[in-house]
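Um, can you check?
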Amino acid sequence: IIIIQCMSLKFIPKKLNFSNQTINEMKINSKTFYDSIKKRRSVRDFKSEIIFSEIIKNAILAAGTAPNGANLQPWHFVIIKKKSIKKKIRLAAEIEEGEFYKNKAPKEWLDALKPLGTDKNKSFLEEAPYLIAIFEKKYSFKYKKKIKNYYVKESVGIATGILISSLHYSGLSMLTHTPSPMNFLNQIL
């Protein structure tokens, strides 16, 4: 397991070094990005090809640049590559998903999911070469003092969006998987 934590509680002002782009360059860049990102899809079938971990690490570093409340970076990313751990995650997720599909999901939600063919079975959790678990951190510690983090869900959501965009830009496909609750991840990882 590789654990990467992007944490810096000290604010260091940065001189902004924006390039002076023309309006035409900005239009081209925005269209190029849109043309790329509109091709992003969630997939559930993964190739067994080796992906260089540097690509995953760079995507996480990009996610770590996300705007966040008080620059406290209230997230923790865990990269999971080990097959035995992916299997434990799959089994635990399928228990939660079984409960969701059987007892928790309203009929309207199940109807919306029906065309996608999803169910409690999550074999892709073992088949994907990497899983990235993203944890929100409600609190941080600085000099053994507990500090409340602000805008945690919003900050983690933005970081996740940047992560997904970076992975897509790198040519990788991915799927966000959000069984609820996911407390089992705290125990497994």
Summary: The longest helix spans residues 83-104. The chain has a mean pLDDT of 89. The CA atoms of residues 12 and 40 lie 34 Å apart. DSSP finds seven helices and five strands in the chain.
